[in-house]
Amino acid sequence: MKIDFSPPFINDKVKEEVLKSLDSGWITTGPQVRKLEEQIKEATDAPEVVCVNSWTSGAILVLKWLGVGEGDEVIIPAYTYAATAMSVIHAGARPIMVDVGEDFNIAIENIEKAITPRTKAIIPVDFAGWPCDYDGINDLVSKKRELFVPQGEVQEKLGRILVVADAAHSIGAMYKGKSTGVLTDITIFSLHAVKNVTTAEGGAICLNLPEPFNNDELYRTLRCYSLNGQTKDALAKSKAGSWKYDIIYPGLKINLPDVLAAIGVGQMEVYLDDILPKRKEIFEQYNSFFEEKDWAIEPHFRTDDQQSSCHLYPLRIKGATEEQRDLIIQGVGERGVAVNVHFQPLPRLSLFKQMGYQEEAYPMAMQMYTNEISLPIYPQLSQEHIAYIVKVVSETVENVLK
């Protein structure tokens, strides 16, 4: 049996929406993008949503709008994909990495130690779809107002550190009765090919800024900034006599095309009622099986306050070394099951080593990484697939650890 790690979910509805986009003759940013934005607004209760061509470009855009630059700092976890840090670097600031807790997410006590007058933003990461402790993070930001040194109109208006949730994994997750998308000032979802909802490549920026900000107005600003700072998109220019435009900001070219948005539109039609419940069902089946194994550390799924979106199933092998973990991955793969590791902590990577980050400064991140393997979890998996996955994984682990 051959089981892929994370194939995209493509059903008849997705195909229908893509063909509709192609038949319309409108394939760049237009009505399908706006429809996807409205679907994500409805699913999350976010006041406004801006779709762009990737999570990374969305984060760069937000940080540029905030006005960060040389000498500024943005706090991120050391346990995340490189895009979290790269967005900070490309915006001209320095990523300040802090260690995580036992749930893989950024530890609030470590955020507090890292805040300085140079801190302009915090980007907590909902690892695997498990939401961070956002009440704790937001309370900390409020408590640290006196340390904040604003530069520029946006920062003056905000008057504190901006919280930008890296919710690349967590569309559909819940925290204290609220959806990811409205838990911080700004939330950014990834719509990459392996995510719960995909547009092949893409991202969605959820705007939830407090007064005196106007989220509708900010939507129009960021939409303009995502199109090279151009005041009219192609759809607006297509109307008779509306060709004239202006360039008002040194923006980016990061708009999402309609033909890609159509994939997400089709998926969003069934995400909350079909795709997400199926992911949760598989997650619970895995937990029920592995909780009987004394070598298994199951990932977080649900508490009274938090509910995962079940993007990943990050199983940890108690007591396994990195070498043993790698042998387990090899053995499982040889029997046809594709598994993965999420993630290599950033200080392990050459770029960040060269920038002076050291692995020993992040002991929890290194500990979590050493024995983690991510199992397949997606709605196309059958009961036969799931039974085979847990059989192969458990037999391989027990063979390696004996």
UniProtKB/TrEMBL annotation:
Positions carrying N6-(pyridoxal phosphate)lysine: 195
Any one biological process term the GO annotation gives: polysaccharide biosynthetic process
The keyword Glycosyltransferase is annotated on this UniProt entry: no
CDD domains per the UniProt record, alphabetical: AHBA_syn
Keyword vocabulary terms for this entry: Aminotransferase, Pyridoxal phosphate, Transferase
One Pfam family from the record: DegT_DnrJ_EryC1
Cited InterPro entries: DegT/StrS_aminotransferase, PyrdxlP-dep_Trfase, PyrdxlP-dep_Trfase_major, PyrdxlP-dep_Trfase_small
Protein name listed in UniProt: DegT/DnrJ/EryC1/StrS family aminotransferase
Organism of provenance: Flagellimonas alvinocaridis
